[in-house]
């Protein structure tokens, strides 16, 4: 596995972990906030969905980038 592919994979893993943490924070906010704070909860949920969309787009980018990194995996 080339260093480039490894770094891209680690970056994708990091982005996925951040998305998981944001989702867990959203769940915690939903559990703890009362009805008066519903607007904040809705805004935070929108942020979570947008960050999820970013994560999916980044995953698609890494899949498109994979064939390029395979060129460097082959021994000369």
From TrEMBL:
It comes from Peribacillus simplex. It comes from the Bacteria. This is Uncharacterized protein.
């Amino acid at each position: 596995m080339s260093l480039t592919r490894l770094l891209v994979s680690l970056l994708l893993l990091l982005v996925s972990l951040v998305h998981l943490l944001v989702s867990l924070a959203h769940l915690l906010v939903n559990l703890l906030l009362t009805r008066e704070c519903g607007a904040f909860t809705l805004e935070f949920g929108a942020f979570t969905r947008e960050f999820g969309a970013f994560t999916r787009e980044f995953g698609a980018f890494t899949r498109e980038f994979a064939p390029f990194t395979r060129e460097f995996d082959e021994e000369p």
